[in-house]
Write a structure and sequence with these properties.
Shape of chain A: globular
Mean pLDDT of chain B: 96
Number of domains of chain B: 3
Number of strands of chain A: 12
Helix content of chain B: 10-25%
CATH class of the largest domain in chain B: Alpha Beta
Strand content of chain B: 25-35%
Helix content of chain A: 25-40%
Strand content of chain A: 15-25%
Mean pLDDT of chain A: 96
Radius of gyration of chain A: 18 Å
Number of helices of chain A: 10
Largest sheet of chain B: 7 strands, mixed
Number of strands of chain B: 32
Low-confidence stretches of chain A: none
Structural class of chain B: alpha+beta
Oligomer: heterodimer
Strand order of the largest sheet of chain A: 4-5-8-6-7
CATH architecture of the largest domain in chain B: 2-Layer Sandwich
Largest interface: A-B, 26 and 27 residues
Largest sheet of chain A: 5 strands, antiparallel
Number of helices of chain B: 16
Distance between the termini of chain B: 57 Å
Structural class of chain A: alpha+beta
Chain lengths: ~280, ~675
Amino acid sequence: MELRQPSSAEEAVGLLGNGHVALAGGTEIVPLLRDGLLRADALIDIRRAVPRGIHGTTIGAGTTLAELEVDPGIPVVLREACRLAASPQLRAMGSIGGNLLQATRCWYWRLDFPCYLHGGDRCHAKDGRHDEHAIFGNDVCASAHPSDVAAALLALGTMLRTTARELPLAELYRLPTTDDPQTTTLADDELILELEVPIPEASVYLKAMDRQRWSFPIVGVAAARTAGEVRLGLAGVAPVPWTLTSVDDLDRATPLPGTAYKLPIARALVARALRAVATG
Amino acid sequence: MSDPRATGSARYAEDFELPGMLHARIVRSLFPHARVVRVDASAVPESCIVLTPDDVRDLSPYGCQIEDQNVLAERARHVGDPVAAVAAPTPEQAEEAVPLVEIDYEQLPAVFDAVEAAQPGAPLLHETAAAGGAAAYFAMRPQPGTNICHRFRIRHGDVDAGFAEADAIVERMYRIAGAQHAHMEPHACVAHWDGNRLELWTGTQTPFSMRDDLATIFGIPPEAIRIVSLPMGGSFGAKTFVRTEAIAAALARKAQRPVKLVLPRSEEWQTLNRHPATVTVKLGARADGTLVASQTTCYADTGAYADCGPGVAQKMGFAAPGPYRIPNVRVDAYCVYTNLAPNGAFRGYGQMQSTWARERALDTLAEQLGLDPVELRLRNIVRDGDVYCTGETLHDVRFAECLEAAAAAVRWSEGRRGKGIALVMKGMQTPSRAAIAIERDGDDYVLRCATTEMGQGAKRALSLEAARLLGVDVARIRFPDPDTSLVPYDTRTTSSRSTYMMSRALAEAVRDPRGYGEIRNEGGLDPDTGQGIASTHWHQGAAAADVEVDEETGKVTVTHLHTTTYAGRVVNRLGAELQTEGSMIMGLGTALFEEVAFEDGQVINANLSDYATPSFADVPTRFTYELIEEDGADVHGLGETALPPVPPAVGNAVASLGIEVDELPLKPETVLAAMKVRV
């Protein structure tokens, strides 16, 4: 397979699309290629094309999770989400931009079942075992989005700058529909360049997971109080990173029989997160 | 530090190469139960060799305890059952050839639960299968017309009369999930034919069982087969008996070239896991806590092929009553076929499952009697010279010492909320045989024996022992990789037997003028009554845990884990400590989150991202253990003892908070469900 190494974002954009896939840390793309879930004619190494590093409230999309988690200027919620996301090796390689674009861990999708996300006509999780799946937004596809970092950035009210536009992070995502399996609005030849992350007065990330570290979230709850307003972002509960507009949203959850146990966990973590950001 | 494993210079089975060798991949069934109607390999490039069921029709079925498996399946019995295989000049070409082999199937009804599969009318996996592989060391008791391939019983005293005199009775059903060994190095081997002579370099714990089973398959004398067991990057029971070797050898036979076969990680879950089990325990006691009766029914899910499942079920059964004086004992253990991937040897071998069930039931009984769980155990614990329910007399018994030390370690007497304790009584392969030859080479001594190295430190332990016995520096001891054409017969490197058995053979060899030593331990059990000698040597241990449960999220956090193990005379102190730590950490995985998850017979978490094994962050803040040593006592194998008591110690600690957990692992989902029925 061909590897191209553009030295600017413009050059990278010119190369992307038509089977040319962007590669940064490789912690997501390489396993997907290896498992045959992603096909690429060429890989475009974007590490020289995308900014890396932290400048005040601006984070380069190529910044690694390891760099973010140790920077005292980064809000606690994001540092903690980075720290709990993966093993040290993965955090040292994985970029924040790539983390936002993670594929689902849905077993059925990973095993290439002909589900909606693969262009098929049903959600296999709903008929089978689905204890790691969604409690929100699961009308069509019941997969759960695994990004801890995205939940944290949602709570912080993050804006993204791409090669084509500026947008609130929430607008990067879309729920898959029966006729369109995409979970993001990013074009094939569009790159996330920078994140603008407001500094909150208080923030916290709480994560229920199997291991102490390096497990995908059963439920992850991010909370941040910015200019007196508290925002909540959730991981592991919907096909995309999920924003709770209020605690009452939890009453409108649509758990499946096997995911019902996630709801009390979400309630507990949301209550704790709200208490944690109410002060401090 | 010059240990080749630390410097990266160690060469494992996966590193072995021969000139001109081909690389193999297995073409596996997509269905849990299906007849193979047609295999069409016409689209595979000519540079590849394809092995189809037609190519192996002359080969005999195999199985280490029941000969129920063919080299390639014409009737696939699990998702991942090998149906064909390809060999190509490069691993990439082999991988690309796999989807080019077209296979038509006719699907058959399947069954995925051992209890269901044992019932009359369940879809049958094997209509007939003959007992008698290389590791069939006891009589098989298949139940014709059912999926039960072995039934083991203990009949001791009169359990009905015992329960009739009980003041308190508990009866509960416990479940334990399947687990994956998750050894770092996958299964790997290289096969080569030199005329009618087969040579195999492979990572295996069982070189002689492998040789004998391959002799059956290919219809050649065992002496025409040479097995070299290369150092393994972990095994934990996975690299036992024939796994990939028969396919590699059949491909090499067809290709007339050496063939290397290395399993991709995901195929490990389709090759061998630990038996999921359902164990029902009924215990009866008098008001003062004296146990009067114990009844256990075990269903061990052995998957599509028996492998050593009959042995696992039998050990699950004879370990079930545990280290307690019980006058009336009844055990029924069933090894049951299902359409899941095969289950086999796994560190703790059957004792994991029944120890979880019994030790949980004892705490429930203590609760019902209003007795302290440690006190209940001490009132009934076996002592030196007691006779076990199998009729054998127990010697050098240290259970009370282990229990009291473990209780003290978690400050049991200061209050037992959040604390749990458990005992294990673990058998060792009986009967078995070990032999070793010592050769002089200049100033050096060369140890020729079949004990294999899988990272457990067997080479180090036996080298230290040889140096001690010979009175020389350990640097003068050499220990080449076992080669069945050069070493005397040894049963297997399993069941924590090697340090104990081989060091005794070694002592014989040092005394012998020809430098040859051989040791046998005789025994075995009648499968219908459970009478005889289960184990000539028992491993004894206890675990204690201190836990916190987040009652809103169901999260169990172990804040302190301790084990006490009777170690006898320790040969290699550092090795003994590392084996104990490794066992405890593995026990935490089984206790808290490890589970092979299935949907319609397919493993759905067959990768190391979704299947979680413990990380170092999961090791409790307080992580302690002690080895009770005794100069002049027997050497005790320590590879497994600290594992089986860990899950019930954690489960009992959770139960001390009023959360009666019956199922492993203790994931948040399971704990929250148990809290709903809390009284």
